Every structure is written in C-alpha cells, then in structure tokens.
# Entry
Amino acid sequence: MKTRMGIMLAVVGAFLLAIGSYKFLQIKAAIAQGAAWRPPPEAVTTIVAHDETWPSTLTPIGSVAAVHGVMVSADLPGMVERIAFDSGHPVRAGALLVRLDTRQERAQLAANEAQRDLAKINYARYDELQKQGVISKADYDKAIADQKQTEANVGEIRAAIDRKTIRAPFSGVLGIRQANLGQYLAAGSPIVPLQSLNPIYVNFSVPQQVIGQVKVGDNVRLTTENLAGHKFAGRVNAMDSIVDQATRNIQVQATLANPEGKLRPGMFVQVEVGVGASRSVFALPASAISYAPFGDSVFIVSDLKGPDGKSYRGVRQQFVKVEGARGDQVGVVSGINPGDEVVTSGVFKLRNGAAVAVNNKIQPENNPAPKPEDN
# Structure
C-alpha cells in the first residue's frame, strides 16, 4: 500500500514539474519576444541643418499713435446750431465743424458796437475841446479810456462768437460724431475725435540692456496681423529720458509714413529694430521645434542600435536655444551642428529612440518671406 502511494505521488510530482517547466519556458520566450519588439517606424520629414547669417534684431510689440490726435470739444456752452462735417471723413485745418447758437452774443455785439461808435464820437469831440482848453485833462483822459473800453468789449464778444464756431485745429480724419443738431453742449463736451494719420507714430519698449544699441535715426520695420502682406518702414525719432522702474524698459518712438491711412491709432503691431551685429543661426521650420516649459527641443535622425544589437534609423531628442523668427523660420543659435538631419514634421508623436521612416516628398513651409505673411 505504501509503495503504491509513493509511486502515485512521484508521478504527480513529475507531472507538476513538467507543467511548471513548460510554462516557465513559455513566459521566458514571451518576455524575450517583448523585449525585442519595436513599434513600427513613424513617418516624418526632415531637413539638413545649415547655418545662416541673420541680423540681430528685437521684435517688441508696439502701439500706433497719431502725431496729432484730439477729441474736438465745445469751448463754451451753447446749443448746436449747425453741424458741417460727416463722420469718418478727412478735413483740412481750419474747416468748420460745428457752430453753436450765438444769437445772444450777436445782440450783445451790436449793443457794444453802438457804444463803441458813441465813444469814438465823444473822443473826437473831447479831443477838439481839449485843444481849445475848454475841458479839463481828467475829462479828456476819461474819454480816451471809454473809447478803449468799448473797443475791448466789442473784441470780447467777437472772441466769444469765434469760440462758438468750432473748426478743425489741424488736417486729419474725423471719427464718429458725438453731438447732435439742437443738443445743448456744456463747456468741454466731446464733439468728434480728430486724428492725423500721415505720418504716424509707433511707440514700443526695449530692455535697458540694449539702450546703447538703439539710437535716433535707426531703421525699424513694422507688420501687423490685421494687414497681412503689408510692411511699413520708418525711423526712430525719439527715446524717453527715463527707464521704467517697474519693467526696466525704455520707451522708444518711431515715425512711419502712412499715406493710405491703413495704420490707425491704438493698433497693436509687431516692430523689428536692429540691436547690433549679425549673428549665425540655424534656420528651421517652426514645425520642427517642440516647445515645453522645461526647454525647447528638436529631434535629430541618426543610426541607433536596438536591444538586439541591430542598427536602425531613429531619433534622439536634443534641447536647443531659440532666438528670433523670420517668416516660417525659427532661428536656433545652439544645440545642433551643421549637417544634422532634423525632423520638421511629426515631432508630436516622437520620443527619444523612436524609429522613423523619412519621406520628404511633401515638406513644411520654410520661407523667410511667405506670401501671405501669416500663412
């Protein structure tokens, strides 16, 4: 009995050992197969990096401002009697814009002119009498003072009438009318904005570190997304006398020609101003840069070795320093070398060591001056 039980246990043990060994070999083979497996290569496009010379520039954001810009307003209170302009139209300096009711002033002017005429007659009479020695010097002096006083009164009323006749202080383009016919305007009430658009200013700030490299007379270029394909050129005409303590920037003002009036006060624009000698950069398409909070990077294609020792075409991630942009291009100043094959599209699906298949039949745009500019 014991012998039979022993034989049965030995047979069961051998069976379990055989099953365990078989499963162990299966798992070991699966692990080896998984370690040797690589995902299929990702399709990418590439470009061979070569250095170019770019001018050293700053590209601050600027704000357009009128050389002359005011809100035309009422100088004296009164009722709007006439509106002589249309909203949005250009006007010449001195053109009539609004006339306020001056009936009361005109009546006062007539009364004062009558008093002036009487004072002139009295002065002529007193002058003749004074020559004859009939009147005293005091009466003669009073006649002179009365004449001057009435002349001043007439001039005061005429000035009030002129101040109620509101004219354009300079040539420019009117905005939207803010006063209506028959409306009572208090002193200082707005009537219409007036802006001189040609030439026009653009104000921008540069860091204090480059103050010595920006000077009056330097050329600037200006672009805006609102006017794709349009470029404006101008010159620096003034720099502020102080540095902003909050930002450590200095305000710079440039003047630009704006004959068609495309630039309007208040617009945000991209300014490009030179700040020194040219620099060497690697011009890459913007799609080649992988931006991240911990640093910008590119993927460089090279021959790599897998876990099985076999060579394959793969990528390695390389951190780079980016400075400036021009059209479709981004300037890389460090991190890559001439001749490096850089991935230009498909970077979002890559990781360090990933296998790739290069297909350059269709390349991303890499034009320094695309048309339109924001394509």
The chain has three domains: 42-54+278-358, 61-67+196-274, 72-194. Residues 288 and 347 are 7 Å apart (CA to CA). Helices lie at 2-36, 103-132, 137-163. The two ends are 93 Å apart (CA to CA).
